[in-house]
């Protein structure tokens, strides 16, 4: 209600004021961004989502997507208005079962004004009906929706949700998901978590997927096409679901030889990082022309090009390590990307050590020696690389080097206790680089700020004396570990 309507003389004014809930008088719009330092417009303020229910229908021939999203959230302030991140066409919005006004602003903001203000601390439900052709929608200069010969894929970082469901699109606001997708008979729909049921009617098959643990929006995936699907269970009884496009050509065998080892790799990673945090696992390889991979929760996305040189278990190790580092323990701000990528890269070094293809120490020595001091590699600070360098090689290699420096400084006992303790303490939550430094100091009992400043926050190659102090400065030129090139090959799978 506008303030000038309150300027009524006498008793009438008092009656009108008494009729207005306090929250309505004080309600303000939620911020159009969650406050990320790299992507100020991503996410939104004023509320927190607990669950998304997505009911979709997708026609592969035309790339037509129709959907109804039901979002359960809680107001974190008295809200007169709030935003969702979305880029498709919206036909109707309901808040609390009542029609709400809405308008599209910018290239991915849906601004919603409910019929009455929302009270802080109260739960509310939003229903959004929408449709569109995702591959034709350009937001921020690109599309994250990938077309395949027989369908479409949603998988990208740091954003992909805008093209298929409205959301609070930032890792700070994780939620559970139900994703129900109807596709023409003979076509499959793959998403995260566990497959609850399927049903067919009038030429359409509906797949119902559930993610019962908190999940970031960019880690939520959808793949529609014609797949060969393999299923199994782990030794602990977790369902394993893998899917491969039927037209992968020469890469098909290598893709299967890699992804089918997911259960084995998760069992090994569980021994290093602690219990696997989710209720399903697997991976999928669609026929897309991209070269990257992505740690979509419980079911990583892999491009066929990742297997062009043969089987690549190191890539599988990286994406599955993200289930702990990035998916379960998610970053607070996109500048904290090191707590995702540095740890997943170090997992590859540990796998190499396990497989007898080069120890983590040998990989650290070779990494340090491979880049001369004037190489741009050392200009990137893994602890805060900037949005333009978020997926730079330095975030991966120099990021892993920082962890080996930490391991050498505090010893294996404390180092591996930190890996397990960190994933347990922040399970299903969010954390920052600073949080990790504080935690490592607590467990080790040693001051570590200077070490991390050297390896994560200095835009130059650590001096020989600093490298020797971290035991990563070999006296002689190191021999290249057998795993080195394969690990380097996976870097191209991480650039978006």
TrEMBL record:
InterPro entries linked: Aminopeptidase_N-like_N (IPR045357), Aminopeptidase_N-like_N_sf (IPR042097), Peptidase_M1 (IPR001930), Peptidase_M1_aminopeptidases (IPR050344), Peptidase_M1_dom (IPR014782), Peptidase_M4/M1_CTD_sf (IPR027268)
Gene3D superfamilies: Neutral Protease Domain 2, tricorn interacting facor f3 domain
Name of protein: Aminopeptidase N
Enzyme Commission number(s) from the entry: 3.4.11.2
GO biological process, one term: proteolysis
The family this protein is said to belong to: Belongs to the peptidase M1 family.
Cofactor(s) needed: Zn(2+)
Keyword annotations of the record: Hydrolase, Metal-binding, Metalloprotease, Protease, Signal, Zinc
Domain Peptidase M1 membrane alanine aminopeptidase: 311-455
Ranges for domain Aminopeptidase N-like N-terminal: 50-219
Species classification: Bacteria, Bacillati, Actinomycetota, Actinomycetes, Kitasatosporales
